[in-house]
Amino acid sequence: MNTNEIEIDEQVFSMPRIGDKAPEFKAVTTQGEINFPSDYKGKWTILFSHPADFTPVCTSEFMMFAHLESKFKKANCNLIGLSIDGIYSHIAWLRTIKDKIKFKGMKNIEVKFPLIEDISMQVAKKYGMIQPGESKTQAVRAVFFIDPNGIVRAIIYYPLSLGRNFDEIFRALIAMQTSDKFNVATPADWNPGDDVIISPAGSCGVAEERMAGTDDLECEDWFFCTKKLDKDLVLKEVLKS
Ligand code: BEZ
């Protein structure tokens, strides 16, 4: 077994970690077969799991993801959903959502991104989406952020009963893109337009320079320096593709 694999009841589950290559898979989805990550090269992907079709929290989340899909697309990010259900259940559920369900002012919501059928749990097991303490048969609410090079950049897990926060999912995506583009870090609760953090001084000389003051940096102390980063510039750079 690899270091990120665990064995439970004689089954092997792997838990991809931040910085790992995203595990490869081929899957049947509501939008046809996909090969991941090769079909998604050059784009960010949010791969997320939900416990089951025809359940209320999952339904609310799917409506939100579908409603926000164009916003994610503008940030060069595709969505892929997964649950341990079959393709006909997926199709029936998505049709029901479109035809019947209203939530937070949304109605007639059509889910156009792929929803993976994973009855065999082959993908869920590779991505640590089955967490047996929570459920042995349903995936937890996992969110994997995978970058254009197929590297896992962030992971969020929620339990079955807790619907996800979509502002945070979008904020995390834009913050990581901003870090990549401008070589900065983002502080607590950062949103575009807020000051960003520059990497801590790596030598006594740089620490001294920073404390002596430079035009564009604001230093609380030698290790804590921020700078302005224009909101329009961030949005132009990360939303341009
Ligand atoms: C739901 O999506 O509503 C749900 C699914 C599994 C357990 C609890 C809630």
UniProtKB/TrEMBL annotation:
Keyword Oxidoreductase among UniProt keywords: yes
SUPFAM superfamilies found in the cross-reference section: Thioredoxin-like
UniProt keyword list: Antioxidant, Cytoplasm, Disulfide bond, Oxidoreductase, Peroxidase, Redox-active center
Superkingdom of origin organism: Bacteria
GO biological process: cell redox homeostasis; cellular response to stress; hydrogen peroxide catabolic process; response to oxidative stress
Catalytic residues in the record: C58
GO cellular component, one term: cytosol
A Pfam family reported for this protein in Swiss-Prot or TrEMBL: AhpC-TSA
Places the protein is found: Cytoplasm
UniProt EC number: 1.11.1.24
Domain Thioredoxin intervals: 16-178
Binding site for substrate: R141
GO molecular function: thioredoxin peroxidase activity
CDD domains according to UniProt: PRX_1cys
Disulfide bonds: C219-C225
Catalytic activity: a hydroperoxide + [thioredoxin]-dithiol = an alcohol + [thioredoxin]-disulfide + H2O
InterPro entries according to UniProt: AhpC/TSA (IPR000866), Peroxiredoxin (IPR050217), Peroxiredoxin_AhpC-typ (IPR024706), Peroxiredoxin_C (IPR019479), Peroxiredoxin_TDXH (IPR022915), PRX_1cys (IPR045020), Thioredoxin-like_sf (IPR036249), Thioredoxin_domain (IPR013766)
Extra remark beyond the main annotation: The active site is a conserved redox-active cysteine residue, the peroxidatic cysteine (C(P)), which makes the nucleophilic attack on the peroxide substrate. The peroxide oxidizes the C(P)-SH to cysteine sulfenic acid (C(P)-SOH), which then reacts with another cysteine residue, the resolving cysteine (C(R)), to form a disulfide bridge. The disulfide is subsequently reduced by an appropriate electron donor to complete the catalytic cycle.
Stated family: Belongs to the peroxiredoxin family. AhpC/Prx1 subfamily.
Quaternary state and interactors: Homodecamer. Pentamer of dimers that assemble into a ring structure.
Biological function: Thiol-specific peroxidase that catalyzes the reduction of hydrogen peroxide and organic hydroperoxides to water and alcohols, respectively. Plays a role in cell protection against oxidative stress by detoxifying peroxides.
Protein name in UniProt: Peroxiredoxin
Organism of origin: Algibacter luteus
